[in-house]
C-alpha cells in the first residue's frame, strides 16, 4: 500500500451474477493492497457469485434482492463506517478496474475527500463514442465547475471515499439510476467535500458482455442529462447521524492473523 496512506482501507466490490470474474478480481486486489480488506456486496445474484467470492477470501455481504450499484455501494459504505474503516474504495467485479492502481487513489486522499480513477486522463486507450461520449463530456464540464477543478470522467465507478465523505455516503448515497455517479458527486460537492481525480486504465471485461449499444447509448444521453438536472435542482438533506462503531468482522480478523 502507498506510504502516504496508513489507515484501514475496505475495498468494496459490488457484484451481480459475476461468478466467472469475481474470484480473480478479489485475488488481484489482495495482491495489490494486502493490508486492505475486501468486501464483496452480492446484489441479489442467482449464480455462484457468493461462493466464488468467499472461496477467494473476501468478506461477503448478501443483499436479499437486486438493488443496483447504488444500493450495493450504500450497503458497503455503511459496513465501512460501522467497522471503523478510514477509506472505502469501489472496484467493479468484472475485472475492468486495475487493482494495482488502488494505491494511487489512496494517495490522492491526502489532498481530497473523494478521488476518481479517471479513464480519460493521460493513461490507457479507453474510448467511448457517440451519445455516450457527448453525455460524459457535458457531465464532466458541469461537475468540474462545481468542483472548481478539472474532472474528465465523472461517471467512473473506480473511486476512493475518505473519512469525511464516508458518513455522508452511508446515509445519503443515491440508489437511483446514475445516482451512484452523478448525484453522489453533486451531494458530496454541496456538502463541502473536495473531489479530485487520478489517471486510471480501463481493461476489457474478464467475463460477460458489455450492455452498451447505439440505442442504449442514446437513452443514456437523455437519462444522464435528466439525472444531472434533478441533482442540481434537488434540495439535499445532508444531515449525518453518528454511526455506532462495531468490532472488526471475524473473517477479517482471521485473515489478518494468518
How would you explain this protein's 3D organization?
Belongs to the glycosyltransferase 2 family. The protein has a single domain (9-233), classed as Spore Coat Polysaccharide Biosynthesis Protein SpsA, Chain A (Alpha-Beta Complex). Helices cover 41% and strands 13% of the residues. The chain contains 9 helices and 7 strands, in the order βαβαβαβαβαβααβαα. The protein has helices at 22-32, 49-55, 68-82, 102-108, 130-147, 166-172, 179-190, 214-233, 250-257; strands at residues 9-15, 37-42, 59-62, 87-90, 114-118, 159-161, 195-199. Strand 1 (9-15), helix 1 and strand 2 (37-42) form a beta-alpha-beta unit. Helix 5 packs parallel to helix 8 (214-233) and helix 7 runs parallel beside helix 8. The radius of gyration is 17 Å and the shape is globular.
What is the approximate shape? globular
Strand order of the largest sheet: 3-2-1-4-6-5-7
The tally of structural domains comes to 1
What is the residue-mean pLDDT, rounded to a whole number? 83
Could you tell me the CATH topology label. Answer: Spore Coat Polysaccharide Biosynthesis Protein SpsA, Chain A
Q: For the report, how would you describe the main beta sheet?
A: 7 strands, mixed
Structural class of the secondary elements?
alpha/beta
Q: In CATH's first tier, which class applies?
A: Alpha Beta
Q: Helix-strand pattern, N to C? A: EHEHEHEHEHEHHEHH
Low-confidence runs: none
Helical segment count: 9
Distance between the termini: 18 Å
> What is the β-strand count?
7
Strand content: 5-15%
For CATH, the homologous superfamily is named as: Spore Coat Polysaccharide Biosynthesis Protein SpsA, Chain A
CATH architecture: Alpha-Beta Complex
Radius of gyration: 17 Å
Helix amount, in percent?
40-55%
Amino acid at each position: 500500500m502507498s506510504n502516504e496512506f496508513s489507515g484501514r482501507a475496505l475495498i468494496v466490490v459490488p457484484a451481480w451474477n459475476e461468478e466467472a470474474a469475481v474470484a480473480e478480481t478479489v485475488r488481484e486486489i489482495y495482491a495489490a493492497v494486502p493490508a486492505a480488506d475486501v468486501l464483496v456486496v452480492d446484489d441479489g445474484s442467482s449464480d455462484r457469485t457468493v461462493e466464488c467470492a468467499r472461496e477467494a477470501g473476501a468478506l461477503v455481504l448478501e443483499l436479499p434482492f437486486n438493488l443496483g450499484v447504488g444500493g450495493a455501494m450504500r450497503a458497503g459504505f455503511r459496513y465501512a463506517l460501522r467497522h471503523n474503516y478510514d477509506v472505502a474504495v469501489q472496484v467493479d467485479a468484472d475485472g475492468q478496474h486495475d487493482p494495482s492502481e488502488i494505491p494511487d487513489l489512496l494517495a490522492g486522499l491526502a489532498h481530497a475527500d473523494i478521488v476518481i480513477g479517471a479513464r480519460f486522463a493521460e493513461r490507457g486507450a479507453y474510448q467511448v463514442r457517440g451519445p455516450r461520449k457527448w453525455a460524459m463530456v457535458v457531465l464532466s464540464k458541469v461537475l468540474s465547475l462545481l468542483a472548481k477543478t478539472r474532472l474528465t470522467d465523472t461517471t467512473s465507478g473506480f473511486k476512493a471515499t475518505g473519512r469525511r465523505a464516508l458518513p455522508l455516503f452511508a446515509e445519503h448515497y443515491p440508489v437511483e439510476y446514475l445516482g451512484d455517479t452523478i448525484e453522489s458527486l453533486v451531494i458530496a460537492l454541496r456538502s463541502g467535500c473536495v473531489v479530485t481525480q487520478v489517471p486510471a486504465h480501463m481493461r476489457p471485461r474478464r467475463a460477460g458482455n458489455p450492455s452498451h449499444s447505439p440505442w442504449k447509448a442514446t437513452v443514456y444521453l437523455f437519462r444522464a442529462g435528466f439525472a444531472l438536472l434533478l441533482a442540481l435542482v434537488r434540495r439535499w438533506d445532508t444531515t449525518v447521524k453518528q454511526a455506532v462503531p462495531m468490532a472488526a468482522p471475524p473473517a477479517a480478523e482471521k485473515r489478518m492473523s494468518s
